Every structure is written in structure tokens, then in C-alpha cells.
Amino acid sequence: MRAWSVRCGFCSSLGAGNDIAVAISISQSATAQARAYVATHLPGVGRLVSFALPGGPGQPSVAGGAHAAVLAEHVSNHLREITAYDPDAVVHIFAACPNSFLFFSRSASTGHSPLRRL
Q1: pTM
Q2: Is 94 a residue whose pLDDT tops 70?
Q3: How distant, in Å, are the alpha carbons of 9, 17, 40, 42, 103 from that of 110?
């Protein structure tokens, strides 16, 4: 199973707020689209966190349900860490991924800031 490569950028150009945008690039890259949407529509976002697999995005990137569950848990754990000191920050998720990943991300997302999937 492939692990995540986490690219975390704290970009002041995204906005002055405490909210966090998360780009999850599994099937295709989501970072550029997330950055553009945030710049236009979400002035409360101050950080963009990008998750990508080491081999890059592609349809066969998730090996099955168990792999999707592991990846979703990894993302959830990382989000829990970065929102620990600001539990009121809203996490805006931009995901280009299989439905199985989104299914498991919902069950793994308890215990951190409110989520808004876009």
C-alpha cells in the first residue's frame, strides 16, 4: 500500500482567516483548483494543506477498501493535529478521489474541527 506524501503550505496569500483548505489529490490533482476557489470564494481560509500519493494522482491509486480506509485515517489524524489549537477553524475539503475514500473519511473524521466538503 502506498503512503501519503503530505505537502503543507501556510500561504498568507490564501487569506487572513483561521480556516483551513485541504486538497486531496488521489484520482487527479486538486491543489490548483482548491487554491483558485479559495482565493475567489473563501476569504476566511489562511492555510492550504495538500495530500498526494508519492507516485502522483491516477485512477488505480487506491488498491481497495482497506487501502482507502488507511489513507482516510491518515488524513484525519493529520487534520486532528493541525486543528488541535484552533477547534473553531472550519476545514474545507477539496477531494479528487474514489467514493470509497470519502466514505471512510466520514467515519474517521470525528474529533476535529467542523468539515465542509466541496
Answers
A1: 0.81
A2: yes
A3: 24, 23, 29, 23, 13
